[in-house]
Amino acid sequence: MKVKMLSRNPDTYVRETKLDLQKVPRNYDPTLHPFEVPREYVRALNATKLERVFAKPFLASLDGHRDGVNCLAKHPKSLATVLSGACDGEVKIWNLSQRKCIRTIQAHEGFVRGICTRFCGTSFFTVGDDKTVKQWKMDGPGYGEEEEPLHTILGKTVYTGIDHHWKEPLFATCGQQVDIWDEQKTNPICSMTWGFDSISSVKFNPIETFLLGSCASDRNIVLYDMRQATPLKKVILDMRTNTICWNPMEAFIFTAANEDYNLYTFDMRALDTPVMVHMDHVSAVLDVDYSPTGKEFVSASFDKSIRIFPVARSQSREVYHTKRMQHVICVKWTSDNKYIMCGSDEMNIRLWKANASEKLGVLTSREKAAKDYNQKLKEKFQHYPHIKRISRHRHLPKSIYSQIQEQRIMKEARRRKEVNRLKHSKPGSVSIVSKKKKHIVAVVK
Amino acid sequence: METAPKLGRDVPPKKDKLQAKRKKPRERKNPESQRSLSGAQDPFPGPAPVPVDVVQKFCRIDKSKKLPRCRSKTRNRLKVAETEEEETSVTAARSELLLAEEPGFLEGEDGEDTAKILQADIVEAVDIASAAKHFDLNLRQFGPYRVNYSRTGRHLAFGGRRGHVAALDWVTKKLMCEINVMEAVRDIRFLHSEALLAVAQNRWLYIYDNQGIELHCIRRCDRVTRLEFLPFHFLLATASETGFLTYLDVSVGKIVAALNARAGRLDVMTQNPYNAVIHLGHSNGTVSLWSPAVKEPLVKILCHRGGVRAVAVDSTGTYMATSGLDHQLKIFDLRGTYQPLRARTLPQGAGHLAFSQRGLLAAGMGDVVNIWAGHGKASLPSLEQPYLTHRLSGPVHGLQFCPFEDVLGLGHSGGITSMLVPGSAEPNFDGLESNPYRSRKQRQEWEVKALLEKVPAELICLDPRALAEVDVISLEQKKKERIERLGYDPEAKTPFQPKPKQKGRSSTASLVKRKRKVMDKEHRDKVRQSLEQQQQQQEQQQQQQHKQEKAKPMRARPSALDRFVR
After folding, report:
1. Name one GO biological process term (chain A) (predicted).
2. Which of A5, A11, A32, A118 would best serve as a mutation to test chain B binding (most B beta carbons within 10 A)?
3. Can you give the CATH number for the domain in which A82 is found?
4. CATH code of residue B212
5. Which helix (H) or strand (E) segment is A44 a member of?
6. pTM for the full predicted model
7. In B, which residues are within 8 Å of A3 by CB distance?
8. Is B153 in the same domain as B138?
9. Can you give the pLDDT at residue A294?
10. Residue B130 shares a structural domain with residue B150
11. Minimal Cβ distance to A43: which of B121, B426, B453
12. Is residue B31's pLDDT more than 80?
């Protein structure tokens, strides 16, 4: 007879000394791992609950301004530097890692309407209520030197916004019309306008760098081509747009923050209907900024909260609020995709985490593996009702919560009336307008 | 003032970004072109072959199932998931190369029947370490014994009818505890690890530490005859003489469900390791399948003409072996048809059955133990010729295959016997699931992780992958469930009650007028709907007629005027 018994040598399964790692042989046969799906479901449930437990996004509040913070700008080369302009004309430069203000400049008399940095990071421009455009050096004044702008341009009308070209030494200001300036000349090289009202903001496209977008008080968004020095096309919405922001990854997508509590993501090539309407704020949306990945953006609103939206969905994935934070005027997403800064009415700049439950700092490889596994589990089981309920749950301040309920009732009433109007009229006389197109009035080429 | 750096002469000009990027197809390395310097070619070109059955083992998507109609985005995602699964199953099949151990075997020489080989012969022919795994404990004083191995297969607990309870590490023969509980012991089980023991004593259920300290006395579980521990749910299922099947959650200490089986005394119980369903055998020849979430049995199978004496389910949950008072031993198919696949008449009925990890079936008939084997792992055992037999000194009262060792543990009236069965156990264990060589620290970590991913008892059902399926409930069933839950039908039309208004608009005449208005509107809607339906039907009929007419002239001889027929 031929016989062999299963006999294991313990030396191959037990470690030799206490200083060695434990030996863990693996066999991935599914019969040795029963109940795969229920166990993964329980792990996903635990991961979702822990995500809510560790969701502590608030990091720091930068104190120092003596009036509301009106605009923020990022330093293109240094992640830790942030510039802010206040409503009393003060510009402060902050170091985020030390959470301190490293330089203060009394830049303008009146509001600082806009601030932007040059692409090389050596200087920055500010515009104010005193009809001037000033260029300043990024490094502080040396010993014995006065705090003087490098260059001052006096204009005839108030400038309300400024943005610098991403590659060339040009910048654009907006006020009564959109002016494109060369850095070394005191007169704009071209002025473009379409319409009769004042323009509130202007933004250069980071990828197709000759394109500009601007928002005007007569409820339109105008796109310009710098090479031809003409406006390209415009779209007229229901209510005024406060700012727009271009997607840093997709050249033709931009998002507009509107007064009718919504944000509209447009594709430049087809402006007649927005790609997505993002509806979650309960008051006017004042500012919007994209994440450097181009997949999400953050919006600041008059209703004392900031929301993070994924580009492809119309509901926000996250809302940040504090009792002390009043109307949020400006918001920026840092270039390392980790932090969000917002400047608000009550003179503070707050620093938040972009992912509320993320652990900051260097992670060990085991931590990284566990984090990736939990992320994948949450993604796989996100549609199950218990898990969805837990991951969507956010605490909201009473004012926002009651506003949401009220607006839901109002929307429902309006919808019911529309449906009744459709039902009781001759078929074909009332046209059905899609929810997205509803807010667009016209597109003009 | 600084300006942007100008492009130098040797920097290539930027391509026009609006031009579509044409990607060159990746050139696959030609096997013929891969030559080494010596000119030799690879004798086995291409990727290494992988056995198809091994790849099949790792496939989880049931391609035969048709999904309901879905959008193209969903369909694309499903296609991507399917291709990913194919790739990963091939990779997992390749990883089988790294498994270190081979299963055991026993083959007779030409004409020799393996059933006639004695344990003494096997012990002589095998190495010392394996020979030490065969031992006999002569314990005649304290009655017939029930045995249980812990989940890793390292520890053995046995309990005698006259109260003798002991737990030991049977590999090193180190005794953990030995006590006499001064009461009849009917069954004994390890809980999730070797630290805790559950003993079903004459009156109540007791939980002991592995040092023999009594931890709990659970008075709600009285007159328990059989115990089963569901390891991934941390549930201890108890079958009692009173006819109740009780599930006790040992991590929380609560009774999750107490189900009345309504079949008299419960004597025969086993669990299905694949889906954690409890199988109960009854005296009318049926086997019923229970889940703690449902008050009624999930399935009832008629197995034998007389009472059922033993039930066993294999580790993949495919086959169920039952034996009854009619001296039959039958193997049923559990996944699909619930029909008997094999049957055999035994000279003496088998009172105890057990499956091993590799699909061997052991039956204890009086003081003889027979083991049947199939071909290869997890195949249906053929009941023609037994693989091994053994005769004991007393009738068998309990048997269980040791999880990762080629050993069958037998409890009988003369004590405990450990029998060698080459080829019964899974040779390669997974260190993160059950590791017989784990240290104290590894055990503690494993216990915490197991408790964190404890599956709730409500998820026990016949198909453990049911949670991953697309939930397609018809609209009507959803509505019915809603009505049941709320107690009334929220969408039922309540008869119109006109609201009372001020300033004389609430007089009887105006109320009647308002009611009439609403009734007329509803009537008009109904009439419009029925008219629409009639119109649709007429149109369909017309279309059908049209088609028939079109077909007719084509059958007749074609004429030149055919092109003018619409």
Report:
1. negative regulation of phosphatidylinositol 3-kinase/protein kinase B signal transduction
2. A5
3. 2.130.10.10
4. 2.130.10.10
5. helix A36-53
6. 0.86
7. 104-107, 122, 125-126, 422
8. no
9. 96
10. no
11. B453
12. no
